[in-house]
Amino acid sequence: MVQVRSGAYDCDVLVVGGGIVGLSTAFAITRAAPGTRVTVLEKEPGPARHQTGRNSGVIHSGIYYRPGSLKARYAVRGATEMVKFCAEYGIAHAVTGKLIVATERAELPRLHALVQRGRENGIPVRELGAAQIAEYEPEVRGLAAIHVGTTGICDFVGVARRLAEASGAEIRYGTEVVRVDRRPELGVAVRTRGGDIVRGRVLVNCAGLYCDEIARMTGDEPGMRIVPFRGEYYELARAGLVRGLVYPVPDPAFPFLGVHLTRGIDGGVHIGPNAVPALAREGYGWGVVRPRELAGTVAWPGTRRLARQHWRYGAGELRRSVSKGAFTQAVRRLLPAVRESDLVPAAPGVRAQAVLRDGALVDDFLIKEAPRAVHVLNAPSPAATASLPIGREIARRALTALGGG
Fold first, then answer.
1. How far apart are the C-alpha atoms of 16 and 6, rounded to whole Å?
2. In 3-state terms, what secondary structure has residue 399?
3. Maximum Cα interatomic distance, the chain, rounded to a whole number of Å
4. CA–CA dist 180, 190 (Å, integer)
5. Cβ(272)–Cβ(265) under 8 Å?
6. DSSP3 helix / strand / coil % (the chain, rounded to 5)
7. 33 CB-contact burial (10 Å; exposed 0-12 / middle 13-18 / buried 19+)
8. At residue 322, what are phi and psi to the nearest 5 degrees?
9. Which residues have CB under 8 Å from 184's CB, separation 6+?
């Protein structure tokens, strides 16, 4: 039995999860309240092994997100702060700008709506006609586009490592939480897979793909479940076809941005992601199946409702997953010169997407407070971009809980 005992705390704030959000939170806590003892528990042998380390490395401008939402506010602010952080700590980065390209007439109203949304979010954009696209991307074709100058790229794994070092927190890698005991009058105690017990006054749940499970271990019903979606990527063999970052006009019904072209900080060009259901929370391939996790996902009513509502969209994603030719055709909408042989499989990622009971995809960051706990329940893209302001917000809530204890 894991038990909390008064006067036997190993730390003040216990953070579960060593991705960029958890490490930013630790960094923010020690900056805001020097002397606060923070311990971070991460089940992997190093930081940022999942969502942080497997994304496209883009510092998002914030243009896509609903004005006033946490995503909009934190992405716009976070993009500026991320560039400054990388410059201060010598982390590889570049402000490249990006194109969002309409390839069909039906997309033009959505493209114009993005221009307005960008202005509402304080993001400067330039509208381009078909002929002007070639100024930025000679091989890209479209009916119209917008150029967003504040978008960039960086090494988010490098950022996570630096946050860990600069936080002054105790970081315990290879430490998986298997049980939580929360006593509102005292604090929390967790048991790790190795049998150790770690006690703290306040728990911060930044467990990403497992955040809903940690919430339930703590005794809190999160009201959502993580439904994992695998993002499948290719590397472009002829990298010279793309100069920078090129995106399609997104479908507003989904939180995914569609198959896009991204020249990364290493000079290579990634194409993707194609988004398909994963058969495990760390299901980085069709061969990775964890029956217990899959059963839990399928049993959630929201999963079934989501599937019924959006099966046509999902069928298209599945087709592109199993057919490289179909994926190539999707890319050709933006980049007609690409050939199937140009696409080399690259490392996939898994998005921790929160789904509500009614099947709705949570489209904003979701942070919930409970006695002695703060749960981060939805923090997919653009969480890496927004990680510094998100970390401060989580830290504020954790310190308030700490003060109340």
1. 21
2. helix
3. 70
4. 4
5. no
6. 35, 30, 35
7. middle
8. -90, -15
9. 371, 372
The tokens for 107 are: 């997309």
Query: What H or E segment, with its residue span, contains residue 100?
Result: strand 98-102
In this structure, the strands spanning 58-59 and 170-173 are unpaired
CA 299, CA 312: separation in Å to the nearest integer?
21
Task: Answer for the pair 276, 323: CB distance below 8 angstroms, yes or no.
Answer: no
Q: Which residues of 137-150 are buried (b: 16+ CB within 10 A; e: fewer)?
A: bebbbbebbbbbeb
Task: Quickly tell me which residue has 């995914």 as its tokens.
Answer: 256
> How many Å apart are CA 273 and CA 3, to the nearest integer?
44
Q: Strand, coil or helix: what is 281?
A: coil
**The two structure tokens encoding residue 210:** 């497992």
CA atoms within 13 A on the CB side of 201: 15
Helices (H), 228-383: 291-299, 301-309, 311-322, 324-332
- State the Cα–Cα distance between residues 238 and 263, nearest whole angstrom: 12
The pair of structure tokens assigned to 220 is: 């809190």
Q: Is 237:229 a contact under the CB 8 Å cutoff?
A: no
Residue 202 CA from chain centroid, whole number: 24
pLDDT tens, position by position, 251-277: 776 656 778 999 999 999 999 888 899
* Token pair in block for residue 253: 């019904």
Collapsing DSSP states into helix, strand and coil, what is residue 241? helix
For tokens 């809190």, the residue is 220
pLDDT score, position 317: 87
- Which portions of the chain are predicted below pLDDT 70? 1-7, 253-256, 404-405
Q: Helix (H, G, I), strand (E, B), or coil: what is residue 37?
A: coil
